[in-house]
Amino acid sequence: MNPTHLNCRNYFILTLSWKKLFLIFLLLAGYVFCGCDTQKKAVRYKGIYEEKPAVILVANTIDKCQRKDVSQEKTKKKNSLYNDEINQANTYFHQGIYLPLTHLGYYVIQDFSATEILKAKNVTNSENLKNDSLTLVSFSSLYDIDAILFTTIFAWKENPENWSVYVHYQLKSARTNNTIFQIWVKGKKEISISSNGALNVQPPVRSLASKLNVSNELAQRILLFNQINNYVLANLPVGKFAKDFDKDQNKNAYPDCLEYSLDELGTVSVIKIPLEKFEQECFLF
Question: What is the reported pLDDT for 85?
Answer without folding.
Answer: 95
